[in-house]
């Protein structure tokens, strides 16, 4: 667990992530976002070492991805994470994936995570230290604007008539 500010996760689009359309396949956006989630969990003390030591982890309850602009092989990515809310068992967060060199938004990923006892396969309270760290990140980010993609509902909207 660390007190320093949450840094963006960075990586480059790998050639094997490219599909037959010549851009990163949708599944690999989720993988890159998962890497950013792992970075957050490491930051707050809920990473792989915690899982091995405590037999507890976090599961994703819900996830929404928006695709804003395509990325291609070799493109550098920067994924910023914003903690939107924390309660005793759950975390609501959003990732924003940007082209690291040019700064434009490529995609967003909104998630709700649940802390789980792996032996019982049931939810359980977050450890006090991790919960405090998550609340600290949330408070530190409170002044930042919430991405417009947060809270979107999926569906077809009626087209406007000319």
TrEMBL record:
GO molecular function: fatty acyl-CoA hydrolase activity
Family matches, as InterPro entries: 4-hydroxybenzoyl-CoA_TE, HotDog_dom_sf
Superkingdom, taxonomy of origin: Bacteria
Coiled coil segments of this chain: none
SUPFAM superfamilies cross-referenced by the UniProt entry: Thioesterase/thiol ester dehydrase-isomerase
Protein name (database record): Thioesterase-like protein
Species this chain originates from: Skermanella stibiiresistens SB22
């Amino acid at each position: 667990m660390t007190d320093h500010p949450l840094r963006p996760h960075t990586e480059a689009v790998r050639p094997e992530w490219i599909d037959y359309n010549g851009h990163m396949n949708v599944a690999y956006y989720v993988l890159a976002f998962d890497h950013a989630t792992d970075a957050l969990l490491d930051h707050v003390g809920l990473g792989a070492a915690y899982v091995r030591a405590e037999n507890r982890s976090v599961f994703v309850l819900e996830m929404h991805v928006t695709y804003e602009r395509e990325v291609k092989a070799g493109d550098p990515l920067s994924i910023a994470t914003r903690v939107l809310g924390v309660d005793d068992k759950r975390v609501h967060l959003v990732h924003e994936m940007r082209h690291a060199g040019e700064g434009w938004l490529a995609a967003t990923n909104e998630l709700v995570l649940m802390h789980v006892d792996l032996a019982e396969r049931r939810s359980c309270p977050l450890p006090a230290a991790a919960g405090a760290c998550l609340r600290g990140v949330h408070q530190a980010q409170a002044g930042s604007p919430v991405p417009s993609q947060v809270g979107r509902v999926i569906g077809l909207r009626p087209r406007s008539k000319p």
